[in-house]
Structure formats: C-alpha cells, structure tokens
Amino acid sequence: MPKLITLTEPRSAAAEALRALRTNLMFSSVEKPITTLLVTSCAQSEDKSTLLANLAVTFAQSGNKTILVDSDLRRPMQHDIWGVPNERGLTTMLLEDAAMSSPPLAQTEIPNLALLPSGPLPPIPADVFSSQRMNDVIGVLRARAHYILFDSPPVLAASDAALLGSKVDGVLLVIRAGQTRRDQAAR
C-alpha cells in the first residue's frame, strides 16, 4: 500500500509541501475558485494516485468536505490505497439512477474525506467522460462537498484526462523528477 505521508509523517517536508500545494490551489483564483480538480500525469508510474490521496487528506484536514473520485477507469488505485471495496462507485452512478440520489461513497478514517471508487470498469472509458451523465455526476458531487478531486489516467495514455479536464475547474499535471521527459510534459 502506498504511503500516506500526510498521516504517517505530518511534520515532514513532503507533508508540508502538500499543504502548501493545497493552499495555493485553494487561493489560486479569486474570481473562479477551483473546487473541482483533476490530477493526472504524463505516463504511468509517476505516483499521481499517491500524491492525490495525500493531497485529499490535506484538503479534508483544512476542515472542508472533500470527495476523492477515482476516475482512472483503466487502472484504478484509490480503492487499494484506502482499503475499500470497488464493486460500486463512479461507474455505478453513471449507470444507475438510484446511485445518483445516494452516491456509493466510502467514508475514510479521515474526517471530511469520502472516496468514490471507480466501480466496475467500462469497455470504453472515454465514452463515459464525454457523456452528459458525467456532468450530472459532477453536479451531484458538488452538492455534497466543497472540493471534488479526480484521479485520472495519464494524459499521454488515453483521452480520458482531456475529456474530464474540460468539465472541471482545474487540472494538475504530476511530473516525476528524473523520469518525466520535458517533451512529454510539454504535450
């Protein structure tokens, strides 16, 4: 299981850097605050899911209701990070009307932080994100929390991040020092 450094080492430089990132995101735009954020990377193995799990903890610790959505419908990781089942989740909300009125959120041990796992994986994930129903899901989640944070597949691997990125207030691209090539990040 990846390390949630914001919990295990809250006074570390890494945990402090995550809190600084959270603060910068919270106050980055006065006219249009970022309340929905997509986190992606250029390629796999850049630890975007672990970074996002830690970032979600910092948002929740600031006293704001936060929902972490595993919208990586190709290689979901958040249910493993948090140790929750993945039978129901985002895809359930996209398919079942009942799940829209009662979203299958998993409460974490962190006050103010809930997880919406990916749920069963669809055959063509990109179709999910271009649908009107995805807009509806985002609206339902906005009514339940102040911040909605989306974990997305890598941007160079699939169009999912670009499609979902057009529906949120901001996008954070995670790059790994010494691994992510400059030309990849520029794309």
General description of the model:
By secondary structure, the protein is an alpha/beta fold. 40% of the residues lie in helices and 14% in strands. The protein has helices at 5-8, 13-26, 48-61, 78-82, 90-95, 97-101, 125-129, 132-142, 160-165, 182-186, and strands at residues 36-41, 66-70, 106-107, 113-116, 147-151, 170-174. The protein is globular and about 40 Å long. The model has no long low-confidence stretch (mean pLDDT 90).
What tags apply to this protein structure?
alpha/beta, about 190 residues
Strands side by side in the biggest sheet: 3-4-2-5-1-6
The ordered H/E elements are: HHEHEHHHEEHHEHEH
What is the strand content?
5-15%
Second rung of CATH, namely the architecture: 3-Layer(aba) Sandwich
Q: CATH homologous superfamily?
A: P-loop containing nucleotide triphosphate hydrolases
Mean pLDDT: 90
CATH domain class name: Alpha Beta
Major sheet, described briefly? Answer: 6 strands, mixed
Oligomer: single chain
The beta-strand count equals 6
Broad shape: globular
Put simply, the count of helices is 10
Distance between the termini: 31 Å
Total domain modules: 1
Q: Which percent range fits the helix content?
A: 40-55%
CATH fold descriptor: Rossmann fold
Q: How do the strands and helices of this protein lay out in sequence?
A:
Layout: H1 5-8, H2 13-26, E1 36-41, H3 48-61, E2 66-70, H4 78-82, H5 90-95, H6 97-101, E3 106-107, E4 113-116, H7 125-129, H8 132-142, E5 147-151, H9 160-165, E6 170-174, H10 182-186
Parallel strand pairs: 1-5, 1-6, 2-4, 2-5
Antiparallel strand pairs: 3-4
Helix pairs in contact: 2-3
